[in-house]
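>> received
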Amino acid sequence: MASEINLPSTDTVIKTAKTYSRDLLERVLTTFLQAFIAGIAVTQPLDASMWYAALSGGIGAALALLKGLIARARDLTNSASLAKGV
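>> returned
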């Protein structure tokens, strides 16, 4: 008694992975830039090191990456968003 397994075509899997990867990369890069600019805005008046701004940007990007991976594991879509239907 063999049941058929319906798997998507390889083209569909590659397109889905490509769309998800592009979405996640965009989110991670924009999060890094936003956090880095915010870090500069905070470190300049406080006379802190620019490395702290880069570190805060990197931490923000790492958290965005983690959130995107969790979103993908939670709901198999082409998006790195936690919102339903995206």
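>> Residues 32-78 form one domain.
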